[in-house]
Design goal:
The complex is a heterodimer of chains A (about 170) and B (about 150). In chain A, about 35% of the residues lie in helices and about 30% in strands. Classes of the chains: A alpha+beta (about 170), B alpha+beta (about 150). Strand 5 of chain A pairs antiparallel with strand 3 of chain B, so a sheet runs across the interface.
Chain lengths: ~170, ~150
C-alpha cells in the first residue's frame, strides 16, 4: 500500500458515487485516471484489505428488530467444525471463535442472528441447534435491548480517518 | 420498498464490480436499466434503509486492532456507564443485552497498544472490569441478510 492507495481508501470510505462511472468520478477527485483507480481497487480487493464493496443495510429499518447474539461452550477440538457448520446457515450473519473469560464466561463460539421478531429467532436457533448438531453444548441467547451507538468504526490510518470496518 | 428494491439490496450485499460501468453491469444482471438502478439506490440511501454503499475494510490487515468487549454494569449505573463508553471515539457499536454481562461493545484502534490503552481507560473511568474477547477465528458467512 502506498500513499495513493490511502488517498483512494479515504475518498471511498463514506460511499461510492452513485453515477454511471463512479471510478472515473473518484479518479478526477484524486487527479488520477479511471484505469488506475480500477486497477488499484481490484488489487486492494484481491489482497483482502477491502473485504468487499457493497451495501450496508440498516437492519431496523428493514424490520429486522430482533438482534440476538448466541454463544456456545464448545471443546477446543470441536469448535472449528461447529463454527463452519453454523456459518453455512442462511440466517446467520456473523460467526466467530473468541476466548473464554473463566469463570464468569465459559463461551467460545459466537453467532449473530438478525430476525423479524424474537419468536422467529428462537425458531431459527432450534433449527440451527438441530441442523448443526449442537444440542450437547451449553448455550445462551442474548437479545439486544437497546443500541446506543452504531456506525462504521472510525479508524485512524496514517492520521487519516477511514470509516467502515467490519470485524 | 418493493420487490425490485429487495432484489437490489440482496444483490449488492454480496459484492459490487470494479470496472468502467459497474452499475450497468449490475443493472443487466437484475434486468433493469442503469438509470433505474441509480435512482433506486439514491432513494434507498436517502430513506436510510441502506446506511452506506461502499467498502468494508479488513481492520487487522490495515495494521489495526479490533475487539468485542463486555461489562457487567449495575442497573442503576447503566446510563452513566453507557455515556462513558460511548464517549470513546474508538467504540463503534454498543448494545445493551439481556444478561449479567449486559453491555457489549466493539472497539477499533490503529494499533494493538492503543487497544490495550483504551481498554484500561474504560476500566479506569467506569471502575468496572472489562471482559475482552478479541476474535480467534472468523467463520466465513457467505450470504448476508436475505430481504424478502
Amino acid at each position: 500500500m502506498d500513499e495513493t492507495d490511502f488517498r483512494l481508501l479515504e475518498a471511498i470510505q463514506n460511499g461510492l458515487p452513485i453515477c454511471s462511472r463512479p471510478y472515473e468520478t473518484i479518479a478526477r477527485q484524486l487527479s488520477l485516471n479511471e484505469a488506475e483507480v480500477i486497477e488499484r481497487l481490484q488489487y486492494l480487493k484481491m489482497t483482502g484489505l477491502i473485504k468487499r464493496l457493497g451495501v450496508i443495510v440498516n437492519h431496523r429499518k428493514l424490520g429486522f428488530t430482533a438482534n440476538a447474539m448466541i454463544v456456545w461452550d464448545v471443546p477446543k477440538n470441536r469448535v472449528d467444525e461447529a463454527g463452519h457448520r453454523i456459518s453455512r446457515m442462511s440466517f446467520v450473519s456473523l460467526c466467530y471463535q473468541r476466548p473464554r473469560q473463566l469463570p464468569e464466561w465459559p463461551y467460545n463460539l459466537y453467532c449473530m442472528i438478525h430476525g423479524k421478531n424474537k419468536q422467529r429467532v428462537l425458531q431459527q436457533l432450534d433449527e440451527l441447534i438441530e441442523h448443526c448438531d449442537l444440542s450437547q453444548y451449553p448455550c445462551e441467547i442474548l437479545f439486544s435491548k437497546r443500541c446506543f451507538k452504531q456506525r462504521g468504526a472510525v479508524y485512524k490510518l496514517l492520521s487519516k480517518q477511514v470509516a467502515g470496518i467490519d470485524g | 420498498m418493493d420487490k425490485l428494491d429487495k432484489a437490489i439490496i440482496n444483490y449488492l450485499q454480496e459484492d459490487f464490480p470494479v470496472c468502467e460501468h459497474p452499475y450497468r453491469q449490475v443493472a443487466e444482471q437484475l434486468g433493469i436499466s442503469e438509470q433505474v438502478l441509480l435512482q433506486r439506490l439514491d432513494a434507498l440511501l436517502s430513506s436510510g434503509v441502506l446506511s452506506r454503499f461502499g467498502p468494508l475494510f479488513h481492520a487487522e490487515k490495515m495494521g489495526g486492532a479490533l475487539t468485542l468487549a463486555a461489562l457487567k454494569v449495575p442497573e442503576h449505573r447503566f446510563d452513566e456507564v453507557a455515556g462513558i463508553v460511548n464517549s470513546f471515539a474508538e467504540v463503534a457499536h454498543n448494545y445493551q443485552r439481556q444478561h449479567e454481562l449486559n453491555m457489549w461493545f466493539v472497539l477499533a484502534t490503529e494499533t494493538i497498544e492503543q487497544m490495550e490503552y483504551s481498554l484500561r481507560e474504560i476500566e479506569r473511568k467506569t471502575g468496572l472490569p472489562v471482559y475482552n474477547m478479541p476474535k480467534i477465528q472468523e467463520y466465513f458467512v457467505g450470504l448476508r441478510l436475505e430481504v424478502g
